[in-house]
Design goal:
Number of strands: 3
Low-confidence stretches: 77-81
Mean pLDDT: 84
Radius of gyration: 12 Å
Strand content: 5-15%
Strand order of the largest sheet: 1-3-2
Largest sheet: 3 strands, antiparallel
Length: about 80
């Protein structure tokens, strides 16, 4: 059984803000805030494939849907489909 990830206090607010902006991808600082991890750790994990990501220009992006799943916020109509 997987242990639930502990969210940073503002993880839900950060996810809500990304969704209100209509963003499907989060940058590394946002992803780190949501995951409660250091930005360098998230960047390394994204580069090595441990965290799903896409390189857009010179910036790595992490899918908001994946972030929601990791912090246990799977609800929401946007994610269905």
């Amino acid at each position: 059984m997987r242990t639930p990830t502990v969210r940073a206090p503002s993880a839900e607010a950060a996810l809500r803000q990304l969704e209100q902006q209509g963003r499907l991808m989060a940058d590394i600082p946002d992803a780190a805030l949501i995951l409660g991890a250091d930005e360098r750790t998230v960047l390394r994990a994204t580069k090595d494939g441990s965290i799903p990501g896409t390189l857009v220009g010179a910036t790595w992006r992490v899918p908001v849907r994946w972030l929601r799943e990791q912090v246990g916020l799977n609800g929401g109509d946007r994610d269905a489909a």
